[in-house]
What does this fold into?
Amino acid sequence: MNIDEIFSQLGLNDAQINSGTLQVFSPIDGAQIASVKIDSSAEIEQKIDNSVMAFKQWRNVPAPRRGELIRLLGNILRDKKQALGSLVSLECGKIYQEGLGEVQEMIDICDFAVGQARQLYGLTIASERPSHKMREYWQPMGPIGIISAFNFPVAVWSWNTALAVVCGNSVIWKPSEKTPLTALACQKIFDQAMAEFGEDAPANLSQVIVGEREAGAQMVNSKKVPVISATGSSAMGKIVGTQVAERFGRSLLELGGNNAIIVAPSADLNIAFQGILFGAVGTCGQRCTSTRRIFVHSDVYDELVPKLKRAYGQIKIGDPLDENVLVGPLIDQQAYDNMQSALQLASENGGLITGGERTLVQQYRDGYYVKPALVEMQGSVDNVQLETFAPILYVFKYTDLDEAIARQNDVPQGLSSAIFTRDVLEAEIFTSESGSDCGIANVNIGTSGAEIGGAFGGEKETGGGRESGSDAWKVYMRRMTSTLNYSKELPLAQGIKFDFGDL
Ligand code: NAD
It folds into this structure.
């Protein structure tokens, strides 16, 4: 599918993709593929007001009927999977298979949300007072502001939108300034679902704001947007989380990771090898869950690490739309520079580096392709504290599991973690209260590639938010406790007497 076919299948016309000042470049070759219009501050304010109006209508539509809109959205995504997956590859550089996988995640969360629309359950709670009932209701919140990162340009929107919409909210999305085209394509798909749905869906139920961080900041600081779901770097989350807290809003933060895998002596080294490779070099190391560190037991180090190094030397790097390629480009030159600085630092600290250099320069002068880097850390260097958003895998040797878990946890971030072991005791320790401190702790599966059914997110500087499956829907709703008295008395809780007597 060529670029014009992709745009045409996704309903993106010339006016939308060639009419503005925000230049969009494909990381594949650095070529400009579009220039889209940036929303002015006044336009953003208008969109926020539109969203408030849409919310006031939508909250009255019964939740199972709201689910029908998301069912239609999922069906259209099925039809557009190849086109949208291709645009994801084109705009953010991940390989086509992963682009398709990202769209599949959108379809999966739509299916999940349709079911959830009939399960927005509250509790009934025993009252301490006679002839009283206590109930819990979940009510919609209002416009949900979504800020997303470049590396999951469409899935993050859908995780939030599918649930927020069945919960009775409207949404406003500020995508990464590096990937506005996929956002405009998703808006088209949403509009199509709205048209098929019928008139009880209000205009502007979902809207896109195009702009840089200031556009996001305007939404973050608006009291009309009660929930901000922000995905991106921890540096961004620190600012956004503080600003939302200052106005007593609610934030859902999905931030950086520094994910590790422990390979125990009993591990199945074949699956450990595959899990590490996909986690470390997949998406060119640009997933929040990418494997950044491995702790390999000294008994298996000399078998596993040379094998990884051989694979690093042979992995196919190139155009992400070529089905034989496993590693596409970095997003831009800044990402490349950050990678080189991190490698320089590792080398100064005594790390032994395999790979890491730029490649395919002749073919793609303005595309930043790199050989994934594997860095064997020497005993004295403790840990790597910063997330570098590039394919660098730091390798450590360990002898004692408690020590490996402690070193794994000894970073500011707490997103994803894994252990490869066939020792059931080790697996149970890893997932116990004294094991991994991350939001995700896998056994015999790598750190990346979560399913939508579980709650996704992490602790510490990863932000503490959870989205997607499990009970993550509750973040888009407010909890209301209601006590009802069906007696002719007015007993007070805790047996308090407040007797005024007769008047
Ligand atoms: P980024 O922080 O540079 O930008 C993310 C988004 O935040 C963009 O839309 C940007 O415009 C916006 N933004 C930045 N500063 C802002 C501000 N002050 N106010 C409002 N909006 C602001 O991140 P990126 O480079 O696009 O993505 C990579 C990062 O995202 C990595 O750290 C990665 O780990 C993280 N990430 C986390 C998850 C997760 O679920 N935990 C998922 C994907 C990516």
Notes: The radius of gyration is 25 Å. The chain has a mean pLDDT of 97. Residues 147-152, 174, 176-177, 212-213, 216-217, 220, 231-233, 236, 239-240, 254-257, 288, 387, 389, 415, 462 surround nicotinamide-adenine-dinucleotide (CB under 6 Å). The chain is about 40% helix and 20% strand.
